[in-house]
Design brief:
The complex is a heterodimer of chains A (255) and B (320).
Chain A (H helix, E strand, L loop, with lengths): L1 E5 L2 E3 L21 E3 L1 H17 L2 E8 L4 H10 L3 E6 L8 H12 L6 E5 L10 H9 L3 E10 L5 E7 L4 E8 L2 E5 L11 H7 L4 E5 L8 E7 L8 E2 L4 H14 L5
Parallel strand pairs in A: 1-4, 1-6, 4-5, 5-11, 6-10, 7-10
Antiparallel strand pairs in A: 2-3, 7-8, 8-9
Helix pairs in contact in A: 2-5, 3-4
Chain B lengths: L1 E4 L2 E2 L2 E2 L2 H10 L5 E7 L3 H7 L6 E6 L8 H15 L3 E5 L2 H13 L4 E5 L1 E5 L2 E8 L4 E7 L5 E5 L17 E4 L12 E7 L12 E5 L9 H10 L3 E4 L1 H5 L20 E5 L5 H4 L7 E6 L12 E4 L2 H13 L2
Parallel strand pairs in B: 1-4, 1-6, 4-5, 5-12, 6-11, 7-11, 14-15, 14-16, 16-17, 17-18
Antiparallel strand pairs in B: 2-3, 8-9, 9-10
Helix pairs in contact in B: 3-4, 5-8
Classes of the chains: A alpha/beta (255), B alpha/beta (320).
Bound molecules: flavin-adenine dinucleotide (FAD) and adenosine monophosphate.
Chain lengths: 255, 320
Amino acid sequence: MKIAVCIKQVVTRDWPLRAAESSTWVRDDDASFEMNEPDAYALEEALRLKERHGGEVVVCSAGPARVSQVIREALARGADRAIHVQSDALSTAGADAVAAALAGAMEGDAFDLVLTGLQSDDQGFGQTGVVLAERLGLPHATIIMEVDVGADGGSLRVKRELESGWFQWVSMPLPALLTIQSGINQLRYATLRGIMAAKRKEVRIVPLDALESQGQRILELYVPDKTSATRFIDGSAPEAARELVRLLREEARVL
Amino acid sequence: MILVIAEQRGGALNPASWETVAAAQQMDAPVTVVVAGAGVQGVAAEIAAADVAEVLAVDHDALDPYTPDGFVGALAQVVARTGPSLVLFPHTYQTRDYAPALAARVGRALIPDCIGSKVRDGDRVFVRPMFQGKFVADVLPEGPAPHFASFQIGAYRADACSRGAAPAAVRAVAVEVGAAAIRQRPEALFKEAKQAVDLTQAERIVAVGRGIKGQEHLSLAQDLARALDAELAASRPICDSGWLPMDRQIGSSGQTVAPKLYLAVGISGAIQHLVGMKGSRTIVAVNKDADAPIFEVADYGIVGDLFEIAPAIVAALDGE
Ligand SMILES: Cc1cc2nc3c(=O)[nH]c(=O)nc-3n(C[C@H](O)[C@H](O)[C@H](O)COP(=O)(O)OP(=O)(O)OC[C@H]3O[C@@H](n4cnc5c(N)ncnc54)[C@H](O)[C@@H]3O)c2cc1C
Ligand SMILES: Nc1ncnc2c1ncn2[C@@H]1O[C@H](COP(=O)(O)O)[C@@H](O)[C@H]1O
């Protein structure tokens, strides 16, 4: 099976974010970056499918040159090669432009299965995978928690997560695209051997001159107004803790 | 004209549909509601109570059960035929599953998960959270109409939806959906075997999030739960990592709880977590980031390091 995994590089979760001068994005020139969380699960699922059914795992990433960091990490975890669609404009692009860029670079490969994460930590569109499926003409299913490839190798049966504890199995023919939910498996980490091997793996760089129409534009990014009436308790840890316990007993009466 | 795509399953209207109608009613254009599925007359009549111009019933056997291929195919025809300026959805799992493909099919982009909408310099813009709710953005749809947007559940109130003096007209709209065009074969919905822990009955809950850093530190939260005579619960990443069983997860894909006391330690307060606990009577948050969205729903907050504060709370409880 030839499996593509779409991996986005996002600002590290703990990075103290501030709006940029332009106020249409955050300041990230000195930020640290990491692999978008559900994408790590998608990669792991692809590696497990390859272990079971054979084939190849290809990382597909769209973004500026810095994205090579997550590409190397994915290769170190076991992916075979990578496609890097490169353009600075991709770092803040909308889902449609990103899907168009990825589709263009992936078309020649005739993948049997394309995996994406469910949602990115920065834009949070939750739609790049679905738009990519539409562009590639593939059937898709979203929020997937289990993947079974049929004995014939030509079909899939997948478990979708729905609201409030409901699930549903869905079958479809291959090739197909799935958006993977965090928690579908337990992640592996790169070994030293993997890191060494990654250095020799192929990364095909596809330069992108112009983004396709975005369909949407961020006019302004800002910190939301605080509307809550949270009572903040100050002081040293022991002082704050004692005051909290007092308030929970005497004011909220929940202890 | 604004199209609102209501959601139903098996003849039951998803109440989030009212919220989206409420959002549309604030936009100064006639609102038409679309209900798609098989046997949707009842649902169409139900939502026709809203003060809207018309309800379109898109009835076709191939639309039940729901599949993304079926819905994209059918609704693309409805959009083409009605020529709306806007197409709005409640941001449900079903919307996530097909609306981006529907927008792409008609050559547009979906602005998803919006929490509001306003007119800015003469243009209608949509307000949506970014960076896990740490920021919001005013987003302008570009290119010609129709524009597509979905609204986060709870962003508008269902009871803000105004009702009409008389029910709106319900009109059947015929669509062509070839069975062969539907590639997904869905099976019946199911729930996993009964959960071992029922957190909905707990009076007090201590919920732990990724701020706890590692499984080896979980005892900190366990001690706190014990000292408060509370059940231990968690955000999704803790359960995803296998540090606690799935049935202790709170949120949209976990349990929904409303205890007397909900103490969140090291939880940022993503919307998918908040929907599972914001009904709690008293919410306390301990987080090192004063801007964490969890403080938006907290009654009491301590900004600081949970590794100092959690043991201090245990000591304060034990200390008399
Ligand atoms: C479809 C879908 C369904 C989902 N369902 C759920 C669900 O049911 N339940 C759920 O919880 N999530 C769910 N999620 C995930 C959700 O979006 C968030 O990713 C998740 O809730 C984040 O968990 P967290 O707050 O523990 O981690 P983070 O967002 O990483 O937050 C960790 C917090 O800990 C704080 N912190 C770090 N160190 C310390 C310290 N030393 N002291 C004090 N504070 C510290 C940080 O400031 C931060 O605010 C779902 C997501 C999707 C897309
Ligand atoms: N720039 C990108 N490069 C590679 N994959 C991406 C990119 N942006 C989004 N994706 C994929 O699409 C998923 C959903 O992202 P989003 O639609 O932004 O929430 C992510 O989890 C990734 O798998």
